[in-house]
Q: What sequence folds into this?
């Protein structure tokens, strides 16, 4: 019923929904919470991200002997699906140390994934002759521009809120700000996900009414989330599972093991909370929109191995999205942080 042409025509809905999701994830990043969690949450996020990267890189290189392909798959493996994590947390009204750590880690590993992927992808394009220019300078400028756009829009939102009496008007300002951020990012060729994440984080920490902002936003965001998951499901090709192969199976297994080992090492090394050490790894399995977007970008610009990347990622996402949300819920339940009856 939903054709490929229809999916392409309404892809902007996906981008808006993902922007709302990243805004909401950013809204969970509060300086006071991060200070309470301490620097350990940053170190855990770095450890689980690079644990996945190193293990996926290693097994891909061992299977294919193609180090460029291994680097790309390793960088994509860092990302966790923010939409799945956020909605599981909200549906079951989860709260506690693991929930706070999970949301902070998901925000950080998506930013880290965008940076590492952007860097490795640009280097590979340079080595294959499909791009020219200063890779590091371009990446640095992209990050600076994203921070400036996101920060400026967030400051406008927080200024505007002080001069209105109607929360519905504030809702329009937020959605308008997000649409502006997405549009500017797309026009300038930078990550709209990073821009929306920054808008959410800065708004949350500057606003005097941030709780009201997110309560108001939740009244309108659900149709976008429904559209996001329907369109994401329609984009999955079940026949891709038949092409999973040895490389796909290696990726499927290596990514969660890498994250788990990274968390286990960092938790012991930096004395993280036991509930984080025991349950965080299982909660980080979901992978969807961000990874799919990166796989399609590789497929379009590096045809030499783009088909292999898209096949591995698309087939793995089917598995991760089938069992991932349940495992996230299970992790939060084992930590005793679900409160659906409240």
A:
């Amino acid at each position: 019923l939903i054709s490929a042409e229809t999916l392409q025509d309404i892809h902007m809905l996906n981008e808006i929904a993902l922007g709302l999701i990243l805004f909401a994830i950013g809204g969970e990043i509060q300086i006071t919470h991060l200070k309470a969690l301490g620097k350990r949450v940053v170190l855990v996020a770095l450890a689980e991200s690079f644990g996945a990267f190193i293990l996926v890189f290693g097994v891909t290189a061992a299977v294919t002997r193609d180090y460029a392909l291994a680097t790309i798959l390793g960088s994509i493996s860092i990302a966790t699906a923010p939409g799945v994590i956020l909605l599981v947390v909200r549906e079951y009204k989860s709260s506690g140390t693991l929930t706070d750590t999970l949301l902070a880690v998901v925000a950080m590993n998506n930013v880290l994934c965008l940076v590492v992927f952007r860097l490795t992808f640009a280097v590979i394009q340079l080595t294959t002759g499909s791009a020219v220019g200063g890779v590091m300078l371009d990446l640095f400028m992209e990050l600076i521009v994203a921070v400036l756009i996101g920060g400026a829009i967030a400051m406008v939102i927080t200024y505007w809120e002080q001069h209105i009496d109607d929360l519905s008007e504030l809702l329009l300002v937020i959605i308008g700000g997000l649409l502006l951020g997405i549009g500017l990012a797309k026009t300038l060729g930078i990550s709209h996900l990073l821009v929306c994440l920054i808008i959410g984080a800065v708004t949350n920490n500057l606003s005097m009414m941030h709780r009201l902002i997110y309560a108001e936003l939740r009244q309108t965001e659900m149709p976008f989330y429904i559209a996001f998951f329907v369109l994401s499901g329609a984009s999955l090709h079940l026949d891709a599972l038949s092409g999973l192969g040895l490389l796909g199976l290696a990726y499927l297994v290596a990514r969660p093991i890498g994250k788990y080992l990274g968390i286990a090492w960092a938790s012991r090394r930096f004395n993280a909370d036991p509930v984080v050490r025991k349950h965080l790894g299982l909660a980080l399995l979901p992978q969807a929109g961000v990874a799919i977007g990166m796989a399609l970008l590789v497929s379009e610009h590096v045809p030499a191995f783009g088909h292999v990347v898209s096949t591995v990622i698309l087939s793995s996402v089917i598995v991760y999205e089938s069992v991932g949300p349940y495992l996230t819920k299970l992790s939060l339940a084992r930590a005793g942080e679900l409160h659906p009856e409240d």
